[in-house]
């Protein structure tokens, strides 16, 4: 089954009505034809992202984005340095270049976190993610861009389960054949939930088949088993939506922060005093009692503070994701660091024209400012609602106000601002 939205980015009605109706309430895969226009994302921009990873590697920069190489279904970490360090490919010769590097006719190159190395991809597919957030909701962990590049005959992971809702966008040049199975059906067919490798052609006839062509987007619900197959070189980009179980967020972020605070034991405090030596003849009972009291007191206090801690974490997580255009937050973000360095090298003066970079958003709440996933102190009397709105909506000339110029310099360190014209050009 397939359908086209007829608009880019898809309007709110698509997310509120069309997507739920076509996917049985977000439970079934569905192919939307011709949904992604070439200016928003294409194979050339994806390969440019790989070139950015290679450039960072040559410069010795540590970044979050990474490349993985597979030959068939075999993961080849030994080839990664080779493809990152080799001389670049001639225009239109990428396939032959990769074949030479890996020493095989068929290959798979998987690129993670491309939103952190490619401003064009982050902005182009950020329109899609922004519309998704507006019409469907906020993924609490943000979204990611994962590229699948190659002429492989089957996804290197075999037939496997997807753990989050995702969209798979396709840019050709070849057609990708995609097969999906509901979890229960897959378990009945295979006897479990383990991936299927090697010759699984027998399984394909039981799967739902989709033929992805350039510009198509396939909605993949969470917990659906799937595999991609192709006979020609093609480029696809998956957009997983990370929501995370509530318990995982509490375990991974909220609880550790609370425990660290409640059980702080600096050397010169009462809580930091060493426990006394325990008599050998008395056994571990007294030590257990002391540890039990400290632990119970901490957990009692944690229960009383849990709601406030959760509220604080949700506030920060919510605005971090939204200010980052819906993308996940990454510390070693090459594109953000380069944008921040470029902004820092410019002179700011009254009349200088500045704007928030697409797809990011400036959010000021209380005395906090969020931009491109970063947080900075803010004076709401300086970063007024009017100034924030003008920065978000396009180029705006900066006022003759030293405090405003200082605030803009601070925000520029997030990599979320761009200088559009100088004051001299404005005059």
| Gyration radius, in Å | 26 Å
Number of helical elements: 13
Low-pLDDT sequence parts? 422-427
Strand order of the largest sheet: 1-2-11-8-13-6-5-3-4
The percent range for strand residues is 15-25%
Mean pLDDT: 94
Distance between the termini: 56 Å
Give the number of DSSP strands. 19
List the helices and strands and how they pair.
Layout: E1 2-3, H1 12-22, E2 30-32, H2 43-58, E3 66-71, E4 74-75, H3 80-85, H4 94-102, E5 108-112, H5 119-135, E6 146-150, E7 160-161, E8 166-173, E9 176-181, H6 183-190, H7 201-204, E10 208-212, E11 217-220, E12 225-229, E13 234-240, H8 246-262, H9 285-323, H10 334-344, E14 353-356, E15 363-365, E16 368-371, E17 374-377, H11 385-393, E18 396-397, H12 402-412, E19 417-421, H13 423-426
Parallel strand pairs: 1-2
Antiparallel strand pairs: 2-11, 3-4, 3-5, 5-6, 6-13, 7-12, 8-11, 8-13, 9-10, 9-12, 14-18, 14-19, 15-16, 16-17
